[in-house]
Design a protein that fits this description.
Layout: E1 2-5, E2 8-19, E3 22-31, E4 36-41, H1 51-62, E5 65-70, H2 75-84, H3 91-106, E6 116-121, H4 123-134, E7 139-145, E8 163-168, H5 172-183, E9 189-194, H6 206-222
Parallel strand pairs: 4-5, 4-6, 6-7, 7-8, 8-9
Antiparallel strand pairs: 1-2, 2-3, 3-5
Helix pairs in contact: 1-6, 3-4
Length: 227
């Protein structure tokens, strides 16, 4: 299905991606003449239907970037996780699936040749960074929204992709964890604080600021002229 937004035609595809013995569901959106592609890794207890991630994805689409929003857990696993909350913190599992999905995206006929970025939220940010460390030639930029990059552990020191960490100014514990994680990274990196915003960026204008920061980072790093 193709929709027209702000003068840009955007093709929306429901996709099913085989990962080992599983089949994971996703939503792929591709603007005409896309300049790059961004894979979203959702956070704790969330899914590809996260309204916050979809808000950011819409802005990226309107800026000429393709997006892929994925469920990193099957429906059965999501039901288990709602009860136990342990799978959302299984970073090696999530990162392994993200690596497979990134490789699938890189070979998709309408995306092949484009530079790929990862956008991670909450625990999904750790998985995005671990996957980026494992795919240094494929993942060319990372953005974390209210993320837990500290959960990426030793992989932080191996990330090559330029990485932007976005944190709410009223989220002091996560801000401290992000500052510590930033110190462990040796790539191009930046930390941006959205003043007055809490962990979910629910304050007026906060999520819009997140989306604009992510857009600017990805457009710069994923453009054809970027190194």
């Amino acid at each position: 299905m193709t929709k027209e937004r702000t003068g840009i035609a955007i093709e929306h595809l429901a996709v099913t991606i085989p990962v080992e013995s599983l089949r994971l569901e996703g939503d792929l959106s591709i603007p005409t003449a896309a300049a790059g592609a961004v894979l979203f890794a959702h956070g704790s207890g969330s899914s590809r239907r996260s309204p916050r991630n979809r808000y950011v994805a819409d802005l990226l689409n309107e800026s000429g970037l393709a997006t892929l929003l994925m469920d990193l857990l099957t429906e059965d696993e999501q039901q288990v996780d709602l009860q136990t909350a342990h799978l959302r913190f299984d970073i090696p599992l999530l990162a392994k699936r993200l690596v497979a999905i990134t490789q699938w995206l890189a070979e998709h006929p309408e995306v092949v040749g484009l530079k790929i970025g990862h956008f991670g939220a909450s625990t999904g940010a750790a998985a995005a960074l671990v996957a980026a460390a494992q795919l240094p030639q494929m993942v060319r930029a990372v953005v974390s929204r209210g993320g837990r990059p500290d959960l990426a552990g030793q992989a932080l020191g191996h990330v090559k992709a330029p990485t932007l960490l976005i944190i709410g100014g009223a989220d002091p514990v996560v801000l401290d964890l992000n500052q510590q994680a930033l110190g462990s990274m040796h790539c191009e990196k930046a930390l941006k604080v959205v003043p007055g915003a809490t962990h979910l960026f629910e304050e007026p204008g906060a999520l819009k600021k997140v989306a604009e920061l992510a857009r600017d980072w990805f457009v710069e790093k994923l453009s054809s002229s970027a190194a």
